[in-house]
tRNA N6-adenosine threonylcarbamoyltransferase (Amycolatopsis mongoliensis), 348 residues
Amino acid sequence: MSRIIMGIESSCDETGVGLVRLHDDGTVELLADEVASSVEQHARFGGVVPEVASRAHLEAMVPTTVRAFEKAGLSLSDVDAIAVTAGPGLAGALLVGVSAAKAYATALDVPLYGVNHLAGHIAVDTLQHGPLPAPCLALLVSGGHTQLLRVDDIASEITELGSTVDDAAGEAYDKVARVLGLPYPGGPPIDKAAKNGNPAAIAFPRGMTGPRDAKNDFSFSGLKTSVARWVEGAARRGEEIPVDDVAASFQEAVADVLTMKAIRAAKEQGIGTIVISGGVAANSRLSALAAERCEAAGIELRVPRPRLCTDNGAMIAALGAHVVAAKRPTAPLDFSANPALPVNVVSL
């Protein structure tokens, strides 16, 4: 008999509630995915303000839940299990979601699972492309994380191969957008500007690609600084800043490093499938260059549609469904959110 899994996400500035159906054959079907974003409340600060995010989650949790059940045509009594983001993320924001999940699980007398936000970004791909090959390589690219992960079992076995040593790719986008006078968050406006620019106009550096650098780790702080210095230099000379060219050249540097390292890691691991997810996975140049290079390397590429790449409840529900299917232990009701939850801990 199929089971309904509810997922709650509140790790940063999106309040997400998703509902999926776990079928007897292990496949997962998306029924509803409702998100309330507080991004506009953070825009004037140029980044996420934790206290503002927490208050926004408190206000949005119940209305978002109501919309999700209305969209799915279900009631709370139909829920068979609840999954909630236990970490990583902002402490206060996580606590709102965890508290809501505990309340719902207690009231409905259903199992509760505290799951990993990062693993959720990988699991969400199964809602669009079906079961993940084992093993596969995940390139997770978001505002706070840039990681290469080996996934042997989405419900229990994820190994980090590399990560950022400073700014994540998404953070670099936000900071470069600020330098160029573009709005926050920086990903969409830079992507839009880059479409009209020349990606070869400026030779920005490719961080951590030297022979002595850790081959699976990433660094975007130097790239961000290089863009800022280039713009400052042009301004001092009284030159008009070619925003489109700067955006395109910056974006090319990011996509070049991400795709190069992902394909190299997949080859070294003997893996034939790469999954790219996280908010930056919606970037048009990253997906296009990844498709081009994966095809040349004979590697299958899977990228969820943009709506699924950003933070949402569907990804947590999807991961919860896989954890339920694997018969993993439920979380105790006294578990705490963990802002620094490591990616190898898929569920609590």
Notes: The chain has a mean pLDDT of 95.
